[in-house]
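question for whoever is on the cluster today: can someone run the full assembly for these? two chains, 350 residues total. i dont have access anymore since they changed the login thing
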Amino acid sequence: MAATETLAAVSGSLGSIGYGLAAIGPGVGVGIIFGNGTQALARQPEAAGLIRANQILGFAFCEALALIGIVMPFVFGK
Amino acid sequence: MSADQTQLAFDWSCRIMSDNGCGFPAPGLHSFLFKPLATVGGFEFNKVMLLALLTSILVVAFFWAAFGKAKVIPGKLQMVGEAGYDFVRRGIVYETLGKREGEKYVPLMVSLFFFIWIMNIWSVIPLAQFPVSSVFAFPVVLAALVWILWVSVTFKRHGFVGFFKNVTGYDKSLGGVLPLVMVIEFLSNLIVRPFTHAVRLFANMFAGHLMLVMFTVASWYLLNSWMVPAAGVSFVMTIVMILFELFVQAVQAYVFVLLACSYLQGALAEHH
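^ ran it for u. tokens below:
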């Protein structure tokens, strides 16, 4: 067994990189929701109330992931 | 964290380019911990509890004043109260639970909505400037309340076996994947859902408060030598973030109540 040799090291806050990665998915999701919501509103303006409620519901489900990402460094960080 | 660290650590002399060599006093967990204002028999009463108490007094007092002596032709206050009550009733409860089933839950949902909204709004009120719901215990208790209501309504409506059928999403037509679906649905409905219900509100207000504190502290920190324009940018960002937070606070109260209603809708629905 060869002794492990450190070839590269990272210093600083890895949490910020992690959060950046974690925000990609929810970002795409929120974009899809509001994009499709706007399209639905344009196609059927009379269903505005129902569309808006469902849009915000979907937005909340997506956004939760990004928000858990914000909190996790505080929970598991040193 | 020790008691003396609990106040927002902010050193007035800490400025960029100053000689005392202190860095940016970044906000963190310490921005959410407070020294007790008073100790009543070993019970430490701090600013967050004071704000929570004020919130409940405000909500009760407002609706008391609006509806205490309700008239057929409403006065100004009653008009505002009715508009708020009707918003939750028509916009959230009727949309999800329907008129017949929903009417019973309207008072709870209205109180939840306004309680959460006012708890959030403290975030931008001068001198208070702290969202009560960014302390995890508050959303947890509210989510637990909804969870207990949901569980008991499901039990009442479907009986013991029906409860487990409802919670596990039992559906014979699924065939082979049914056991897998049942395990996932069971965990998702009973454990993950109340957790995310609480975390959604908490994390939104937590992140919002961090952001407000950061831009506010940065505005002061940057106000030195040639960095003054940067302080201006930071100050403008503070104003923009406050406006954005006002929006987020209302949306989060709305979402919390909407989700509570949609969980109840699952409990009231006939299983097939």
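summary bc i know u wont read the tokens: Residues 1-8 of chain B have pLDDT under 50 and may be disordered. The two ends of chain B are 52 Å apart (CA to CA).
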